Amino acid sequence: MAVLGLMAGTVAAQSAAPPLPPGALSPENLAKPRPKAPFDVTGTWQHELKGPQSWKFVPQTFELTAAAQTEYDAGRKAAAENKVYRDDIGQCWPAGMPLIMTRVHPFLLMQYPTAIFMVQNFMNSLRIIYTDGRPHSDPDVVVPSWNGESIGHWEGDTLVVDTKYFPGHHHWLDQGGASIPASAELHIVERMRMIENGETLEIEYTMTDPKSFKGDWKTTKRFNRQHDVDIYEVECTPDLNENLPATSSESLIR
């Protein structure tokens, strides 16, 4: 009888557990009353790519931690020898945030009242910005990802997006030169504004990563709306990359 009583108590406790929050696109979540968003980013976008270094997020001057400095020095040494250091993206590891935003490929944004979905033509990488009022996940249960967990809220005509929870491996803030790693403590805050009559999306980035660099890194990127461009399926497969010296040649990879 005591065992049966304990089992009954356990079942009752489980049944009393709070329900899971609704998904971003669940009908009940979409139906909740919310203020109208100041702008709609739905469409296809392309980073403006003004100059050969415009895609980078690493500032001109910076101070690295000892661990990151080791990677940086090794990358510079390899570059001086015309070799490639840790080309993880070329080996089909995800580019991740923030580099996924400034690839030479366009990306698609689909805005709903509860979330913004991004599909980048580069590797078809998926990023989701939740705007339904949810907090960041509990760090003890969250699954880290290369694009991180992005939570957004509106401040006037600006969408503020807070992104964290990165894996801390095979993830870089720059490659092909600086070779600065992104640790699991990378934290990115974006302030997004629509300008030029909705034809340009301006994003101000502030990044911190105490395991890789000291202080804040700030930069502003602009993305132009593409009216006649669609994205398509693109898969990164190692067998296709075998013909690219920068990704698989034993004479270049270190």
Q: What would you say this structure looks like, in words?
A:
- There is one protein chain.
- This protein is of the alpha+beta class and 254 residues long.
- It has five helices and eleven strands; from the N terminus they run ααβαββββββββββαα.
- The protein is globular, with a radius of gyration of 21 Å.
Discrete helix count = 5
Task: Choose one word for the global shape.
Answer: globular
Please give the order of strands in the largest beta sheet: 1-2-3-4-5-6-9-10-11
Termini, distance in Å? 67 Å
The total count of strands amounts to 11
- State mean pLDDT (0 to 100 scale): 88
Provide the gyration radius in Å.
Answer: 21 Å
Strand content: 25-35%
Helix/strand structural class? alpha+beta
Bin the helical content. 10-25%
Chain oligomer state = single chain
